[in-house]
Known about the structure:
The chain is built from 15 helices and twelve strands.
Amino acid sequence: MLTPISKAADFLCISGAAYISQCIVFHNGNAFSHIDGLLGLLGLALPFITFRITRVYQPFRYESAINNAIRVLVAWLIAQLVLAAISHAYPGSSLRSHWLLWWTVIAACALIAGRSVIHVLPSLNRSWPFAPTRVAIVAPSSANDGLLAWIAPQVRNAFIPEVIYDPSLPLDTTIGVIPAVRTLERLKDIVRAENLREIWIVNSLFEPISVEHLFESFCDDFVNIRVLPILERSASTASSVEDFRGIPILNVMATPDRNWETVPKEIFDRVFAFAVLVAISPILLAIALAVKLSSPGSIFFRQHRKGMNGDVFSIYKFRTMYQGADKPGTVVQARKGDARVTRVGRFLRSTSLDELPQFLNVLKGEMSVVGPRPHAVEHDEYYKNVVQHYMFRYRIKPGITGWAQVNGYRGETAEIEKMEARVKSDLYYIQHWSFWMDMKIIFLTLAKGFIGRSAY
């Protein structure tokens, strides 16, 4: 739909502005160094990270052209501020600052102009091939203010609802800015007046509704009638229709496909883990020495955890408790002031430094940098019977950090409510995963630090 066009237009605006500003600043024979070139490449990549974080390309966003332009400008300025900060660390920053200033201004004007054109085109010509699909929504007994927000995550392509038909309404009204009607005749009038070609029926997966009356009403119109299955709000994942070996299927509960979209994550995990282990090797040696001197016993602590699809592996951590503190076959969560934790171990646990050896698990392919945190197998056996959809967390690789951790759900989970909140965050991550979401979580982990109030 519009998203690929917007991304392409934004890239052309930013790269074109970079070239024009380069010609302006470096036209008097001033040398354009290799450092300038590398920073230029970084400047082309950074905006699309900030655009992603600020949800510039988020579908189903019903906002005006002005709000969209402001969102783009804010994301662009953040990217340029980061680039300027990096630029000051290298020689020749004075001349380069003029280039970045020209680049920022020219690209800002180009982005506003490009966004305005893209925003206006669909309204000028509604048959434009890349215009969002205009649909009528049939939502029996379910139309409410949260309807569109509920539909949005379950549909992959952008759309524009023009009317909502709900026969249970007491009278015609509006939901947001969208007219909602209660009679079939009124629906027919709007569909034909607006020349709509799509009718989507929002249908509970386990409560099928009759659609014969719609077929009869629109049998002579060239209108596509589609059923959009919606899982109940208590379901763990959003339903999705996919092609499985040539057969269209509706996923109710299934492991996310390991397709080409996951390749960047797999490559990043290995490269990032190797780079981190090399970079922090002096810190690892210092911690290992501190652990060894703190109390008798091994430096590392190994414990069985479940990985993707429930496969058990041994997780690596620095030992933080006295040797033999736990009884065989039992695992008790550490609490505040726990006598089993050594003095060095208390510091390691509160700062999460005891987790650093898990980059070895990432390097081995047993874990990911970002994903749901794995729990002790004994804890899994308990929580799977008391927390709904608990085991769905293991449909993907566990991680060193995750969406739950950056949202404050780390450390001790003494109350069931805390574990439920953590599981809810993990399920949200699984449903909305993207490579850029991983980058956001890593950034938030670094920005918020490793210290947690509930980590003992």
